[in-house]
Amino acid sequence: MTTAKRKRMPRAERERQMIEVAEQVFSARGYAAASMDEIAELVGVSKPMLYEYFNSKEGLLLACIRQSRAVLREVTEQATVGAADAEDALRRGLLAFFVFIRERRQAWSLLRHEMALIGTPAADEVEETRRQQTDLIAALMSGHFDSEDDLRAEAAAEFVVGACERLAIWCERHEEVSPETATEYAMDVLWSGLRARARTH
Amino acid sequence: MTTAKRKRMPRAERERQMIEVAEQVFSARGYAAASMDEIAELVGVSKPMLYEYFNSKEGLLLACIRQSRAVLREVTEQATVGAADAEDALRRGLLAFFVFIRERRQAWSLLRHEMALIGTPAADEVEETRRQQTDLIAALMSGHFDSEDDLRAEAAAEFVVGACERLAIWCERHEEVSPETATEYAMDVLWSGLRARARTH
DNA sequence: TCGTCCAGCTTACTCAGAGTAGGTTACTAC
DNA sequence: GTAGTAACCTACTCTGAGTAAGCTGGACGA
Fold this sequence. Notes:
- Two copies of one chain form a homodimer.
- By secondary structure, chain A is mainly α.
- In chain A, 73% of the residues lie in helices and 0% in strands.
- Chain A contains nine helices and no strands.
- Chain A has helices spanning 11-29, 36-43, 47-54, 57-80, 86-103, 105-112, 121-144, 150-173, 179-192.
- In chain A, helix 8 (150-173) packs antiparallel against helix 9 (179-192).
- Chains A, B: This is Helix-turn-helix domain-containing protein.
- Chains A, B: Residues 12-72 form the HTH tetR-type domain.
- Chains A, B: InterPro entries: DesT_TetR_C (IPR054129), DNA-bd_HTH_TetR-type_CS (IPR023772), Homeodomain-like_sf (IPR009057), HTH-type_TetR-like_transc_reg (IPR050109), HTH_TetR (IPR001647), Tet_transcr_reg_TetR-rel_C_sf (IPR036271).
- Chains A, B: It comes from Amycolatopsis melonis.
């Protein structure tokens, strides 16, 4: 075991450690129920250090969210490079997303919960993450779709993000649904539309 | 003005009044930033009364959420009765929803924010509201669609709810988009699918 | 070898706001 | 009237965010 007094480590390293612990505690207990004292104790440091580095409880949350967002961006962007067409790009992006939420549950849970921080920086931060994904999709669409109507295209992008977010939460309740299956479900509705499944009577 | 000491009113009426004020304060300040003292003061009553009737801050929030949900259920269910077919029912339901979020902003803002109360009753309550809408859609679909695959149908319903929720939030930023236009955008993607809009190249 | 500097760290507080104990008043029924 | 109780209050406790002020160990120049 790495016993001994784990003391005096450089700021950058300590920050990484704090974020790691905070992500765990926030996603386990929820933001409101998590206490700075507990996080400090788990890190093995006193509370004022957290405030020294992150200014506030919300600042610490912000750092966690930003980190999760960076990872999400990385994986989804990487996934779509080299896609043959719109359908392929969409499918690859969706798959990357559904894999992310399965493999990095804590990060995802930070991103999905709105935080009761309406109007505060943290809420904006979560919203910013969605905007990131929306922009990605909007960009993708503008490359492959006729966009005589920008507003409509924007709405469609929002629509896709919201739908996938909800489907992702649904997946949490359904262990048996693999990321691949989830992607197929999403593509089914998104690409073909519900009309294709309507009973002809 | 209804001056004078507005005192001693029956419990039911006082509760309604409290919920009304609380809905305002919660949606204006956000759950965390709202204080029970302020709500009590605005109601014109002392704090222990709030606790007498709702047990806790979260209990008060719960009451607000339940009320909003009841209204949402009412309007969307009413909207879909007498629809000719699946497409019509979907369109009517969507329109009712988009009208609701425009006309009852405070109620909607309570329902959309996740509250940082993971695992607590309030979070379940918001989730319950989505389930209500999901069930509505699932029921609608099972009436009009071939459902050889229940899981797929359930996923599709979640998908629709998530997509509309996000589109609704997007509408908050776009005053110029009417509920009718929002409904059209939603139907466009949902019913016809993105394939219909893909550039043929 | 010794100062001195400062990043990393601490103890010991304040303060706001959730929640409560226990008492007071005004209506209602007889 | 007066007994009973629903509606209401004052005056607390206690938890947890945030802060003031000071301690310490090691790098680095003289």
